[in-house]
Design brief:
Mean pLDDT: 94
Low-confidence stretches: none
Distance between the termini: 13 Å
CATH superfamily: Hotdog Thioesterase
Shape: globular
Order of helices and strands: HHEEHEEEE
Radius of gyration: 15 Å
CATH class: Alpha Beta
CATH architecture: Roll
Strand content: 35-45%
Helix content: 25-40%
CATH topology: Thiol Ester Dehydrase, Chain A
Number of strands: 6
Length: 142
């Protein structure tokens, strides 16, 4: 199976088994080796006491994009470090797109930049994450 098909199959498997990403309403827009683009619409229950989207939800969307990009290579990967900068407020009804791009890949680690934008293509957050690449490969039913 070619790398693009494998990356799409892994992304589908990951989303099917990720209850939190499904609760967030994550949609896979694109996946390729070392890359993922996810989208989710913000709902009222995702906002804080100031009617602004909880930063943890924006982080979670970015973290999911990181996981999908890192996993697209076929090995299970775990985040070992990440940081996020929130640049613009996000509100209920906004549609966010998280785009993860691989910066560096080695046998044991991967480094990724993630940009989160709103429906107006305005950047609302940027994240950088490092993952540990386990030796465990994704397994699929025949």
């Amino acid at each position: 199976m070619d790398e693009e098909k494998t990356a799409r199959r892994i992304a589908r498997h990951m989303l099917d088994n990720d209850a939190f990403s499904r609760w967030m309403g994550v949609e896979i827009l694109e996946t390729a080796p070392g890359r993922s683009v996810l989208r989710a619409q913000i709902r009222d229950e995702m906002t804080n006491g100031f009617a602004v989207t909880h930063g943890g939800l924006i982080y979670s969307l970015a973290d999911s994009a990181l996981a999908f990009a890192a996993g697209s290579r076929g090995r299970v990967a775990m985040t070992i470090e990440s940081s996020i900068s929130h640049i613009k407020a996000v509100y209920s009804g906004d549609v966010l797109t998280a785009e993860a791009e691989e910066v560096k890949l080695s046998r044991q680690t991967g480094v990724y930049n993630i940009t989160v934008s709103n429906q107006n293509k305005k950047v609302v957050a940027v994240m950088r994450g490092t993952v540990y690449r386990t030796n465990r490969e994704f397994e699929f039913d025949p």
